[in-house]
Amino acid sequence: MPFWWTFGKVPEVSAPELQQLAESLDREQIDPKPLIIDVRTEAEYAAGHVKHAVNASFLPPWSFPNRVEPIVKDVPKSAQIIVICLSAHRSIGAYKWLRSEGFSNVKQLAAGMQDWRARHLPEQAQK
How many CB atoms lie within 10 A of CB 86? Predict the structure, then answer.
């Protein structure tokens, strides 16, 4: 089954857990450093994203590897990676691709940015 088939259950992190992780990146040296990848479109990302998240749009899915490879090329395979999308569907495909590349500690944000926003958690926006 292709990685872009965005159905199934994958490990998740809650919005409060991700907020705590993002905040800890400002205060602590974590080795290997966790990576937060927002797989929404560039416009969605620019409108508001989790602090420290980098953007690698999942759309179209067959181009995702070309967008994310430069981001993960120097990341240890054991590093924690959290993938984020709007409603936790596109992130499933991103999760599957990252796992297929040997990354062992990948999770998605449960219920995506919809839950993050419902909880009124802080967002960064591009100017």
Answer: 19
